[in-house]
Write a structure and sequence with these properties.
The strands form 16 sheets. This protein has a five-stranded antiparallel beta sheet. Strands 60, 62, 64, 65 and 66 form a five-stranded mixed beta sheet that branches. It has a four-stranded antiparallel beta sheet with strand order 2-29-28-27. The termini are far apart. It is about 20% helix and about 40% strand. The protein contains 14 helices and 66 strands. With about 950 residues, the chain is α+β, with helices and mostly antiparallel strands. It is elongated.
Length: about 950
């Protein structure tokens, strides 16, 4: 029993549901910034989407989400875009939103005009349009609003309204236990009270050529023709009866989308056949679909219990996502004998091609699969464990010496294959009807993930960490010789090597190089290398398909080249699917041609199918969605979109948001802009949907915006013109004021200068007069100086005269004294006569008389000196004054002694006493002091 359970577990574990589904774009609440649940969805003419969300009206323009809270802070239950208004309904309120010139929406309540008629606790779950009337449906009544007369009419069924529906020509509603009604002339008319309509809740009503198609919550579809009700069979009737259908939508192709409470979404054809069943296990964010809506591009939007999803139904890309992890990352795929084989990091899986059957694990292949290769009607599998030959759902090991990367046929040897292994290259050979391992090539032991062989048995090998090697095989494929290691091109991460159009190509970050067979050197191939320019390199993986196309992968595109039929030039084709969306393993990208135009591309969680013949897309319109300005470091302020902007000089920071309202998962829109007046050239293409210009100088600017979708430039160019005004001090009025101020200033400057020069002139005259006066004074001083000099000369003359006189007196006295002494020595007998002579001499040498004469002369020569010295030194005696006078005449002590009739020694004593009286310091000379007085 345990072994049976184990076997069952293994079978379940290695069986994977494998329907290829349309891509699903998931928007969780954290992305759109609103409540979990969205109850109704609508779209306007610009392709903007609107959601009745728990938190309010949610707007999505393909790039940015914007939430407008419900006016009364309740759950918004319904939304419907009609013309240029967005009608919404919530708890006890309904009305419409209109777009303001700045692009924002504002709300106008209609229910406030009939507020007294609104029932307590009433919520409005649906909004319908019929001609000029808008219908707001609650669970109690239907309010009919006439957009022309602005009047209301109310339908109030006794048992309430379960739900309302609109078709092209009619409005229907269902009441509890009564049936299906149609509104005619503003009143309800019963069209069917069939027990089915009394028992089951109707989800939707669709028109048919001969009646109505009614879909119920728990009992599937019914066809109502007249009064006859018959079941409309579908392939999922059993599932629908247990899934509780909550929402539905008729699709543009006539099919149906059904949203359930517990089992995701069913997409049916118009005949009722199942196209897709998409649930949480198959990529949907949640199994509860509260609302469904098909947009203009045939995308199905799903308001889930926890988020919003967009299903790209009409797309050339369909994907299979393995959320269970059983399948793993796809590294290789191939179709063989009606089977699709997928090699992953978990092993080899298969299923019938073009079926919705499950993938089945092929026993014995657990582990990493690197490659799948068909040769001689045999399927080879390169595996981490070696080499397998696969037949239907079984695999047989033929080589287990090391892992096997890939296989190549041997030129001119039909029964031989070369395989690249972890440790070199080895040979497989067909003996009889069986392929088997023959030998390992000696002399080359490097890993050979990428290699190619030429007709003359030259082998080229690319090793990611060592670069490119070349060697030649002997004719028996036993040994490698003539080994050569290339120094250029260099080794590179995710590099690869492949043969295309009988030429060998090598690709790495530095470009794509082609082998020149004459020189055996690699030369850069400009056309292919251009793909990796502008930082587009992600991987050098090269793949050649069955139609002789070479495929390459870059950051934002998938490229394939095919040979031209009329020249040797390669024709390039671009698929605008970025690597960030494809979710491929870098360096291990793989693409397999499944049919003429269908390709399978492996990813880390499954694969996706691409139809290159269906790569046509609608021509969208690029729009500027929002423009904001702000002062430096202040909040943004929205501006009017549809008229020329005029901004203040300090509001010179402008932010522009733009969008292309498209919702394809795998294709990103790229933008290019030019701000005339600020830029000379268009910007580089970028997926960024906003741009900010800071500190713009005053002037006129024109912003031009282009968009590229699916590698096609959209036809329209969005344009916005604005002016950054000059600051007030640079306006024409300011210039005029400046001119007036300059004139006034010039006047006052001129006046000031005139006054200044007049004052300068007056000052100059005054200075000249002063100079003249000074000159006169100088002349007078000069004259005075001359007079003083003359007086000084006169004084000097008198001083000399005085000195001569004094010296004469001195000489006279000396002579008389000498005679006197001689007479004293004469004989005594003549004493009487001699005494008379001596008396006469004494009378003539009287000092008093001499002093009087000297004093008068001295006073005449040096006026008031004696008075000044007496005033300075009152204690001086007449003899002291006399000594001062002699010293003033600069007489020596020897010359002064006769004048006093004393010895020289006595003169010195007099001088000493005079210093004492004058209280002179030792360092001060007496004569110098007296001369200075």
């Amino acid at each position: 029993m345990k072994s049976k359970l184990h076997l069952l577990f293994v079978l379940v574990s290695f069986t994977v549901f494998s329907q290829e589904l349309p891509p699903i774009v998931k928007y969780p609440p954290i992305v759109y910034g609103a409540g979990n649940q969205s109850w109704m969805i609508s779209q306007n003419e610009q392709n903007y989407l609107y959601f009745a969300n728990n938190e309010g009206l949610l707007e999505f323009n393909g790039t940015n989400w914007k939430l407008y809270p419900t006016p009364n802070e309740t759950i918004m239950r319904s939304v419907k875009v009609i013309d240029n208004k967005i009608y919404t309904g919530c708890y006890m309120n309904f009305g419409y939103w209109t777009r303001q010139p700045n692009g924002k929406l504002t709300y106008t309540s209609l229910s406030d005009t009939i507020k007294s008629k609104i029932l307590d606790d009433e919520q409005f779950w649906n909004i319908l349009k019929y001609d000029q009337w808008i219908l707001f449906q609650s669970l109690n009544r239907i309010y009919i609003y006439d957009t022309k007369t602005k009047n209301f009419k109310i339908i109030s069924p006794e048992k309430g309204v379960i739900k309302s529906f609109s078709t092209k020509n009619s409005i229907y509603y269902q009441t509890a236990n009564e049936g299906l009604f149609e509104i005619e002339a503003g009143k309800g008319k019963l069209i069917s009270d069939h027990p089915v309509f009394k028992k089951y809740t109707i989800v939707n009503v669709f028109t048919l050529d001969d009646g109505l198609l009614v879909q119920t919550q728990l009992d599937g579809f019914y066809k109502l023709t007249g009064t006859a009700l018959t079941p409309f069979k579908t392939a999922v009737d059993a599932d629908l009866k247990s899934s509780f259908v909550y929402s539905s939508q008729r699709l543009q192709d006539g099919g149906y989308a059904l949203g359930t409470v517990s089992n995701g979404i069913y997409i049916l054809s118009k005949e009722g056949q199942l196209r897709y069943h998409i649930s949480q296990s198959k990529g949907l964010s949640n199994n509860t679909a509260l609302s469904l809506f098909e947009d203009k591009d045939q995308n199905v939007w799903v308001g889930l219990d926890n988020g919003i999803n967009c299903i790209n139904l009409q797309t050339p890309v369909h994907n299979f996502t393995d959320d269970t992890g059983v399948l793993g990352t796809v590294y290789a795929s191939i179709t063989y004998n009606g089977m699709l084989y997928v090699g992953t990091n978990q092993g080899l899986f298969c299923k019938k091609y073009q079926s919705n059957g499950d993938f089945q694990f092929i026993s014995g292949t657990k582990g990493q699969v690197w490659s799948l290769f068909v040769y001689d009607n045999t399927l080879f599998c390169g595996h981490d464990s070696g080499t397998f030959i696969v037949a239907n759902t079984s695999a047989r090991t033929i080589f287990s010496g090391s892992g096997t990367w890939k296989f190549e046929s041997v030129p001119n040897a039909k029964n031989q294959l070369i395989q690249g292994n972890y440790y070199g290259i080895s040979v497989l050979e067909k003996v009889g009807n069986q392929w088997q391992f023959r030998n390992k090539v000696q002399g080359f032991d490097y890993s050979s993930r990428y290699f190619e062989i030429t007709n003359n048995l030259e082998v080229y090998v690319s090793h990611e960490y060592k670069g490119i090697f070349r060697f030649k095989l002997d004719k028996n494929l036993l040994k490698a010789k003539e080994f050569y290691a290339y120094s250029a091109p260099k080794k590179g991460k995710n590099a690869s090597l492949i043969k295309f159009n009988n030429s060998i190509y090598y690709a790495y970050k530095g470009g794509i190089f082609k082998l020149n067979p004459a020189t055996k050197q690699f030369e850069k191939e400009k056309v292919l290398s251009s793909i990796f320019e502008k930082d587009e390199y992600t991987s050098g993986k090269l793949i050649v398909d069955n139609s002789n196309r070479i495929w390459l992968f870059s950051k934002n595109y998938i490229h394939y080249f095919s040979a031209s039929k009329l020249s040797n030039q390669l024709k390039q084709n671009i698929i605008p699917i970025p690597s960030s969306l494809t979710n491929s393993m870098l360096g291990f990208e793989n693409i397999t041609q499944i049919s003429k135009s269908t390709y399978l591309i492996g990813t880390t969680d499954g694969y996706y199918m691409l139809d290159i013949d269906d790569l046509s897309f609608k021509n969208y319109t690029v729009l500027i969605s929002e423009i904001s300005i702000n002062k430096q470091n202040q909040t943004l302020k929205d501006v009017v979109l549809n008229e020329e902007g005029r901004f203040k000089s300090n509001e010179n920071n402008i932010t522009l948001n733009y969008t292309v309202p498209e919702y394809n998962k795998y294709i990103n829109t790229e933008y290019q802009y030019l701000l005339e007046g600020f830029q000379n050239d268009w910007s580089e293409w970028s997926t960024k949907s906003s741009v900010n210009f800071k500190n713009l100088a005053p002037g006129k600017y024109t912003f031009k915006l282009k968009a590229k979708y699916a590698n096609t430039i959209l036809q329209n160019t969005a344009v916005y013109t604005f002016v950054v005004l000059k600051p007030w001090y640079l306006t024409y009025l300011a210039y005029f004021i400046y001119f007036l101020l300059i004139l006034i200033l010039a006047y006052f400057v001129n006046k000031t200068y005139r006054n200044f020069y007049r004052k300068q002139e007056e000052k100059l005259i005054e200075e000249n007069n002063l100079l003249l006066e000074i000159k006169e004074l100088e002349n007078e001083q000069q004259l005075m100086k001359l007079r003083n000099e003359q007086l000084s000369q006169d004084v000097d003359t008198k001083n000399r005269e005085l000195a001569v006189s004094t010296m004469s007196l001195n000489s006279k006295n000396e002579l008389l004294a000498f005679i006197k002494e001689d007479l004293k020595k004469t004989a005594q007998d003549d004493t009487k006569n001699i005494k008379s002579v001596i008396r006469t001499i004494n009378d003539n040498i009287t000092e008093e008389d001499s002093w009087k004469v000297f004093k008068e002369a001295f006073d005449s020569a040096d006026k008031d000196f004696l008075k000044r010295i007496k005033l300075l030194h009152p204690l001086l005696t007449p003899n002291d004054l006399r000594l001062c006078a002699y010293l003033r005449l600069n007489l020596s002590s020897k010359e002064i002694a006769p004048l006093f009739n004393i010895s020289v020694r006595s003169v010195e004593i007099k001088r000493y006493r005079l210093r004492k009286k004058m209280d002179l310091q030792h360092e001060n000379g007496l004569v110098e002091y007296i001369l200075a007085v």
